Amino acid sequence: MNKFQAIMIAALGSVSALSAQSVDNISVSTTFAFENSYVFRGAQLAEETFMPAIDFSADNVYFGVWGALPVTGAGDSEVDIYGGYGFELSEIVSLDVGGTYYAYPDSEDFENDNTFEIYAGASFDVLLSPAVYVFYDFDLENFTIEASAGYSYALTDSLSADASVFAGWVDLGDAGSDFYETESFDDYWYYGVSAALSYALAENASLTGYVNYSGSNERQMYSNDKSEVWYGVSVTTGF
What we know:
Helix content: 10-25%
Shape: globular
Radius of gyration: 18 Å
Number of strands: 14
């Protein structure tokens, strides 16, 4: 059994134990997605990738495990374990704080290649639902700030159309430059848009197809292009 399987089985066990309890304020969801490219903050990290996820929340606390498993081509397997606390500051403003542990099970130096990042953000219950987040990775010593906005429109009772935009700035610092093995990624900005159609398969299950575009002032990690268009499909179920 590899490290990724162990992490996912442990997470599934935790979720199963929580689901078995009749606690009204606990919600659990699973997502299974496939994308023909894995792009993170303006950089292509892998080609065709399977992306499973498990999430649960209890009141204002949430926890999740997300994986990126490349099917073909370049890219390494990745497992992200994250948790946080979100709360309403007012009727309009909500705050969110948390952390993410990025693990790379296939790495020959598993312990040293993994990184830990903290984040804090604010979202606003107004037109286009704008949000601003800041991130800091202690191991890579990099700082990221990202702003986003989006809109969802119900086409029918079961079908909705969603669109979002985002833009961010990253200062990788010395450790980040060493990690990506290039100096050109130091201090760069990125942006992107996404369009999606979501169909409700049942009360707690949905199917979503989407197309994304991301650009950057630096080249993609696995190509010489500074932009990427990719598509994906996901199935989400809740319990």
